[in-house]
Write a structure and sequence with these properties.
alpha/beta, Rossmann fold, 2 domains, four-stranded mixed β-sheet, 11 helices, elongated, disordered N terminus, disordered C terminus
Length: 275
């Protein structure tokens, strides 16, 4: 890269996460310089990529994990397959944490896997360098089977960050007994994501059954006055179950990020008895 494509910010003791957007965690990088294993010039080169790198088609935010605890993901729609490959390559070349490509079509997926074939394809999401397993108990609940693609996106992003979410499907309020048959799973979850279209009432029901964080995702599923998800969105925002987090319509990715922020992006609460 040309020198004018590097954009450095003052380093002011940023909080350490898992170092997912540097070649090594910052502490390891500094230790390597101190021990002589990493040359000062190499350390400067790596640090220069922390804020962002201009790769022509995009400005890659290598500093995001240090600021937010979660690395930048790649939203595929609107990008050519070549653009996707360039961005994925930059993220994989300069980081150690999860790399997520969301809502990719077959051509974009093939281009990205051409850069690094180790990616795991989960529907329209591709994941490289999955984070270590963590113990968070996250339950993703869907009102109907038509809501599954949005729930799949949420589960895939959680999986990328080390959480293997449990699933509870097709338990909408028109047959509330289906939900109540598994109410113990709701009680046991550290966080619940509720994915629902139509009128979106399921989020309020679940929100009244647990004291943990509940993230509500309205979907564009429904007839007539469902208005492509607007009715579910407004119903969730007006919920009488206080404290619901509501994301945008069909935003499974955002729901996963909301859970990760609520639980902590690196280490969740362990389950079971401590040693």
């Amino acid at each position: 890269m040309d020198p004018d494509t590097r954009h450095e910010l003052p380093l002011t003791d940023p909080p350490l996460t898992d170092g997912s957007l540097t070649d090594l965690p910052l502490a390891d990088l500094m230790a390597g310089v101190a021990s002589g294993a990493i040359s000062p010039d190499d350390a400067v080169r790596r640090l220069s990529r922390l804020p962002f790198a201009d790769v022509g088609v995009a400005r890659i935010d290598h500093h995001r994990a240090l600021r937010q605890g979660l690395p930048e993901a790649v939203y595929a729609p609107g990008k050519s397959a070549e653009d996707v490959a360039i961005v994925i390559g930059e993220l994989l070349d300069h980081g150690t944490g999860p790399v997520v490509l969301s809502r990719a079509d077959k051509v974009q997926t093939a281009a990205a896997l051409g850069v690094d074939a180790s990616g795991t394809v989960l529907g329209h999401t591709v994941v490289w360098r999955r984070a270590a397993d963590r113990h968070d108990r996250v339950l993703v609940v869907t009102a109907g089977t038509a809501d599954a693609p949005v729930a799949d996106e949420c589960a895939a992003v959680l999986w990328a960050h080390g959480i293997d979410a449990d699933r509870l499907s097709d338990v909408g309020v028109s047959g509330i007994h289906r939900l109540l048959a598994d109410v113990d799973r709701i009680h046991e979850a550290d966080a619940v994501v509720v994915v629902a279209g139509m009128e979106g009432a399921l989020a309020s029901v679940v929100g009244g059954l647990t004291d943990g964080p509940v993230v509500a995702v309205p979907t564009s599923v429904g007839y007539g006055s469902s208005l492509e998800g607007v009715t579910a969105l407004l119903g969730m925002l007006a919920s009488c179950a206080s404290g619901l987090t509501v994301v945008g319509i069909d935003n499974g990715f955002g729901a996963a990020c909301a859970v990760l922020r609520a639980r902590g992006p690196v280490a969740g609460r362990p389950t079971g008895d401590s040693a």
